[in-house]
Every structure is written in C-alpha cells, then in structure tokens.
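Practice problem 4.
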C-alpha cells in the first residue's frame, strides 16, 4: 500500500511540475542567423531524433508562371550552429514535426484560400535524407480548406489528436481543425478581458500549442512583452514575463515566432546580430 501511495504522490508532483508557469520566461538558447533570410522568418520546428532545428521563411508567394515559392528552410544543429539552407518551394507559415508520421511538415500561406487561389497551397510533407536534411522533394498532406479561416493563419499541430489550432486575425478566436476531414471541431474564444489585452496587442495569426494539459495555448503579447497562457476553454491560466528591454518589433505580431516539441517558444529579434537572432524561451516547466 505504501508503494501505491508513493507512486501516486510522485505522479501528482510530476504533473504539477510539468504544468508550472514560469513567472519570468527563461532564455534557454539562441540561434543567430548565419544566412540572410530569403524573406521573413516565420516559425521553427525541432526533430529530436535528428537533433536539428528547421527555420522556415515565408512571404514569397509563387508569381507569374512560376508555381514555386523562393522562400527557404534553414537547418541548424541543436546548439544553434548553421548547417545548410534549402528551397522546397513553399510560402511557409507554420513548420512542425509530425510525431505520428515522423515527418517534417509545413502549412503554407493562404491554406484557407481566403486570398484566392495560389499554386502549391495547403499542407505538405518535406522529405528528409538520412542526415536529416531536406531533399527539396515533398508530398501533399492536404490541399487548401476554407475552414482554416484567415489567409495568414499559422496553424500549430496537435499530433495526439490530429488537429490544428488556427488563430484568426484581428480576433480572440482560435479554430480547432480536424486533421483528417478539415472540419471545424470547435472555436475557442480566448479571454482577452482577463488578460487585459486587445487583439492588436498580441500575435495576430499564431497561437502555440504546447501539449501540456490545462496550459495548451500560448500567445505572445507583443505590446506588453509577455506570454499569455490559456487552456482549451479559452481561460487565461497565467502569464510569463519577458525582459522589458527586449527589442520586440511590430513585425512579431505576424511572424518571427515558433514553438517546438521540446517545449521552447521561439522569438525572432531582428536587431540582434547581422541577420537577426532567434531567442528560445521556456515558459512552462
């Protein structure tokens, strides 16, 4: 009986530790960009087995008769050292590692088709070689679907439930999209009143999915330099402060973000270093 109580107590403690919000976000690492971004850094993915970070640029839609975007994906090692850049052909918005299929995937600009039709629009698997580097080959996961809403949305992925969280622009709404049918499963109204923010204070298209029960969504409050943590009911469960002298730009409302499956929130500081630097913060312990 004592063993059972010990196991239950240990489990209780571990779950509470897992869900602890750090009052001040902890800077864990930096990735100084060695190569000038092809456009604007959008989001970041991490593959544990490869021990590599993948930084996706976006902002160059295919033009004219050219069906491929010139936006690149840049690969860095786990210590932030640059390896190589690739051109898979997509106007990336959200890059992530799919733990179900063990593949690197990207969601493009206008995944909802709200801005009209563009070639190579949707969600795609990016092929990797045996070194964990892109081959510039890809496969389609799904084509565009109007259920994603805003053209600029940067959906984050929940592998366990095969669903996406698509923040809608100029609002407090996050749509939950089924990864198979692309149906809207629900809409989450984030409690901006409790957070004392307006839609123009926070990231416009991006809500990070954390996979931490009760603390599932994180928004960057650009204007007040802090992270806002919400649960799946939209309730504000806490905040985590950033340094007040951190030079966050207005552009961070729309890009230069990322949340990786090793629990780090990435924030691009374009004034640091020759080509800018990604800061990686721990928000939840």
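Answer key:
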């Amino acid at each position: 009986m004592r063993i059972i109580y010990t196991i239950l107590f240990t489990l209780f403690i571990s779950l509470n530790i897992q869900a602890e919000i750090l009052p001040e976000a902890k800077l864990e690492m930096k990735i100084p960009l060695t190569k000038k971004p092809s456009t604007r850094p959008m989001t970041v993915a991490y593959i544990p087995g490869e021990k590599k970070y993948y930084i996706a640029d976006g902002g160059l839609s295919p033009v004219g008769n050219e069906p491929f975007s010139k936006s690149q994906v840049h690969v860095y090692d786990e210590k932030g050292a640059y390896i190589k850049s690739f051109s898979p052909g997509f106007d990336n918005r959200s890059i992530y590692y799919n733990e179900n299929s063990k593949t690197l995937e990207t969601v493009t600009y206008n995944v909802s088709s709200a801005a009209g039709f563009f070639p190579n629009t949707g969600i795609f698997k990016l092929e990797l070689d045996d070194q964990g580097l892109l081959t510039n080959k890809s496969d389609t996961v799904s084509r565009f679907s109007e259920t994603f809403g805003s053209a600029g949305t940067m959906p984050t992925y929940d592998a366990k439930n095969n669903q996406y969280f698509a923040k809608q622009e100029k609002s407090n709404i996050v749509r939950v999209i089924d990864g198979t049918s692309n149906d809207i499963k629900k809409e989450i109204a984030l409690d901006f009143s409790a957070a004392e923010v307006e839609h123009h204070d926070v990231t416009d298209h991006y809500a990070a999915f954390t996979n931490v029960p009760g603390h599932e969504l994180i928004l960057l409050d650009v204007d007040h330099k802090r992270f806002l943590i919400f649960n799946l009911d939209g309730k504000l469960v806490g905040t985590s402060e950033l340094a007040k002298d951190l030079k966050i730009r207005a552009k961070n409302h729309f890009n230069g973000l990322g949340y990786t499956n090793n629990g780090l929130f990435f924030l691009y500081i374009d004034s640091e270093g020759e080509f800018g630097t990604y800061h990686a913060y721990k928000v939840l312990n």
